[in-house]
Protein 1
Amino acid sequence: GLLSRADAGDARIEERCDWERFTGWSYERTLISCPGHVCGNERMRCTRTTITSHEVDPPLALAIGGCTSVNESPRVRDAAAVPDAYREIWQWIDGRHPRSESPDRLVIPRCFTLSQQAYLFANLLEALGLPVHCDTVREEDIRAGQGCFSLDTCAPTIGATGQCIRLAAEPHGLIFLPQIDFLPTGGASLGRTCTTNQGGIWAAVQFARHAHPAARFLVAAVNLGDADEPAQTRRLYRSLGELFARTGLRVDPARFREAWRFAHAAAAKLDEEKAEMTAGYLEAAARSGAPVTVVCGREYVLTPGVYDQHISKTLKDKGILPVPSYAFDTALD
């Protein structure tokens, strides 16, 4: 705030001011919470602190903290043309996932590494004839899951717990969580995920079963690591055997391989369209001269407004184009 006033040509105050003169006073402190009224984002919760001292007349009042919308409002107006690519890319991908309203639907919670692979599994199971509903973790899931833990744990585990508890109370035929042990890396590494060692999926399921004993969950270990198509479809077919039994699907290996090819092509098409969308944002930024920041992290950690502390809002308010790192998980052709 002071820097912008100096740039505007405000007169400088020549009187000397000693810091100890203020630190020795007594103050009254008031906390002011803004539920997104200034920035227009109802999910934002910014807190400002007002401290007041009556050591002088008139009383000295200082506001500390707050959001960029308040502290740099001229910059907000200047940055209005910068799109929130970070949030818009997420919302576009999320909108592509199926949302079946059937009471016997198969529900896939988008949590942990499964979040980025849910589209692949959804297309596979839809091609086999199942009604599929992909669910995204919500801010209220974190609040619901917090009470289940007396020890510190990672936020995605808390969010997945609240999400599974919520889904267990909603209509479903089966809540399916593929526990992905390995991801394809093109030979760069083993591709092992942290989900197995962490036990986050199993913890979430157990809490949900305790809250709703009648809920129907299925956790299946899945390996998506590098392999040729015949080997990969054989091991996936074995991994999903219990799912076929519990849903009544009669699927032979040949039909499964055909559905897998369809799902794999659909996921590749989504990646291609995501790359084109991201390139459009970057090209527009290059033309306008807007700086670009790549926000790095696993896709599920970069869920807007849930685990990421509203980072895209902070960057956009400063005139910076925010782009999530998973937008670059694509073939650079």
Note: Residues 85 and 323 are 6 Å apart (CA to CA).
Protein 2
Amino acid sequence: DPESFSMLSNANDPGSRGGGLVTSSKGISYENNFLTLGPLTITGTDGTLFEVEARAQNLKSDPTVEADWSLDCPRSAVPETQLLPPPLALIVGEQGISTGPLTADGHLTMNFKKGSERPVTFESTAHAEFVDGTINLGGVVFTDITNETNISILVHNDVVESLEGTSFIPSAMIEGRKLENVRLRTVHLPDEDELTVLMSMTEGSLYGGPVRGTFEYRPESGHYQVDISMVDVGLAGIADGEVSPDGVSGGKLMANINFSGTTDAPEYRVGRGNILIEDADIAGNRGSMALLRLGQLMLPGYGGMEEAEIEILVNGNEAILSDILLNSPSLIM
């Protein structure tokens, strides 16, 4: 049995090599065309634990391989996360979410034809929980993510036949603003030319208002499409990152924003949207002023604006405001 191991966290970075000790193992046994491995427990030098138990049968004809695994690590940036099978490997790691403490477990089954090194069918299920997650979705940065996810995948002849997942995020920060009680549903779109994953936010709350959205992603090309809508969101929270001390939101914000691009070329991101603000004192509300950057439009000695409607165009890293409508009891601009 092996006594130690090492591996690269990044295949192209020799400095990412880490490893540890094989702390327990029942080894490998083979009898009557049936192979078993483990349980094998691997302990990383930083306290990471990875355990796997595998079984293979019909080795002389059409083999079937099954495995149960579990991982407990202090952060996702450890070499052992490279052992995670799909679909969790697509979510956690260099191309997905970076996390703090992470626990995960799952089961996988592979069916082979005699003499083939690639499985005819691959089926995998996984459950994961983590905190302190960070991810960049098309230029929208989510941080401090607390997450629990269940996900499964079925692949036949290298074609994804099904991909299904559900996630619950009690809290996260979106561009420094607190998003709460988010539920996500993940599926794949079968009629596309390449693998296309669709994540739908079916529930979510941002400063008292519901938030919904979709994130469509094609891992092979890196293309994405983001659509976000929000209604009755507390304006002070959006602008200042917190609800005002007296509990008054200082107005309500409604918004619809969509943009698309590729992950390796953020400067070519394009999109559009609109923002509507109601029941606000825009001149007097510090949050509104910070959000809209419209202080230079206020007339000298004028008391305030109650409503604002703004059209937005996204061009790379720039957001261009157009068709700005400010409304008050006595003046429309």
Note: The helical segments are 88-91, 235-240, 286-292.
Protein 3
Amino acid sequence: SDGSKLAKGKSLFWDAVTDATTLEDEPTAEFFEEKTSIIAPKMIFYQTEDRVDAPRGGQLTTRGLKADDSQRGAFGGWGNVTIIWKGKMNFQKAQQKAFFEEDVQLSRKDFKMNSQNLEVGFQGEDLKAKDLKATGNVYILEKSENLLREAYGQEATWDLVTNFIEIPGQGTLFMQGGEEEPKEEGKVNVSWDKKMTMDDTQKKITFYEKVRAIKGMQKVNCNQLNVFMGEGNKVNHVVALGDVLFTDTKEGGIEGIGDTMEWDWEKDTMILSGTPTAEVRRKKNRTFAKKIYYDTNSQRISWRERPHWQIPLEGKDSSRSFSLT
């Protein structure tokens, strides 16, 4: 110990040629410095390069981030943060980078992120965490009293300054609201092909290309889905764009086709728009209008301008239909 740093282990070896100090113990040696601790079987400290290696797995923890000093430490404002890895860890202070390999897990009280590899970028003399990049079987879990969110993908980047997350490539997101919501209606599954972005500042989640969303017995397919969050990060309203196909699979439900759909999540009402018209189908009946309004609770269809209907004929001409405007 030198007052600000403390090392505990079975052996401590200094290499005069490389100016590297190796700390080892079984099952783990320990190193403490201000708000950060590292627990690992082996740690190598390179004084000249200002670098730390932990080549046999370990755990890094930021400690003591209480309300009165919540902005101190690498993950200021995050509370206590723990990173566990099974492969190796490499921290390069001069480059302001840390790398973790194999079965990596970053966790705090209400958040967890698993991946095969994790890169953490820092900034400033006090080494505040600036961004994260996770690759390989990425799993993100966020859980609070009123919200559960789980995201899956092969890669994720997170700007910790702006709180902006991106999951490129294909992925899925599962969301579930609080206990006050019906069990099935409160569950939402979304999958996408191109990318997902989550902007905490704007309270907005956007999904791109071949988006498929399921909420209870309602389904929507589109090219882009914008989800806007309200208080407590609960879904407030949703906007679907491009090649929209909406389906209400309940008895007496509809199938809607259009260019845009605005969905009031709390009232469970929606507006389907199209150019030149949107289309709603119920059984064999079809309704066309520039804007069609639908209430999923009452299953009522309405419109504001003069609509166009297509009604099938009965009897021997049942394969034909006639238009009524």
Note: The CA atoms of residues 43 and 276 lie 67 Å apart.
Protein 4
Amino acid sequence: RARGPWRLRRTGRSGRAPAQRPGYDGHDAGQPRQLCRRPAVEPVRRQHRADEAGRSAAAAGEHQPALAAFQQYRSFDTPISPYAQLLEASSLVALHRFDQAAQTYAEAAAQAMVRTEQALAFEQAATLARDHGRPAEAQQLYAEVLSRAEVPSYRAKILFEASIAAAQAGNFQQQQAFLNEIMTRSPETEHGLLALDQQLKDSMPVTPTLAARIYVLHKRWDDALSQYDAALAVSSGEEQLEVRRQRALVLRTSTVPDYATALAELAAIGAASPNSNVGLQAQLDWIQTLGQSGDSMGAISAYREYAAAYPNDQRAPEAVSYTHLRAHETDSY
């Protein structure tokens, strides 16, 4: 049967009904294609364009256009808007608008973000506040950081920064509390040493044995010896013997080891209290120091004597084990 023009207009050139054509999406052929897009696609693209424009402008040093782009980026109010606010804050810093930057960092941190990102944003806000004359506000912001700071080295860093803000605010008791926490909980960190040096510089009370241990951890041998000397002056009895033992260990470990003095001191401690915990440990330290000084055979013999003299001491098996190990290394079985 003949097909008229009306038939072609209805089905198109293929002669098929629209629903049968490949790729047909349910809209008439004459309808503009952009109306067929999902409504969320275009805002996401605009957001990405704003992000790219802001980053490009910031990289070129054009911080005012970058700020405008990041503000537009944030205005879309999506789950990643707080991160756009962080970029906005960095542009404000580059424009030397520090007060506004601190507020923007704090506002971003208060939103739903990854916990570590929150801590970093609060830290940025706190540092800006502290460095620009607002120590009381900085202390509040550092408290937010500390509530999220779990890694010991990072927490030590924040405690030290917070101690500076506390000192600026005249809160010296809080400053000392922050520094003490660093020294007792993270003495091995960089800020453990900084905290100790700050306390001594400000003539704050510091336990000499704690100071000595921190200096030992950071291989500041002369400073450690000085602190142990201070501890000896205020100690007695078994406590003083332990301080002497620790001091002798520094002598054998320092940059230029003094084995002779260390051996003599350890021997004197062992003889002064041979059956006490500190005396027994000093005897073992003496044997180990003898081996470190180069007398391996003498150390092996002394370990055997110790194990025979104190068979019930919990350190005796260690002495026997060390004896076998050193004997194997020196072929002295």
Note: The longest helix spans residues 41-59.
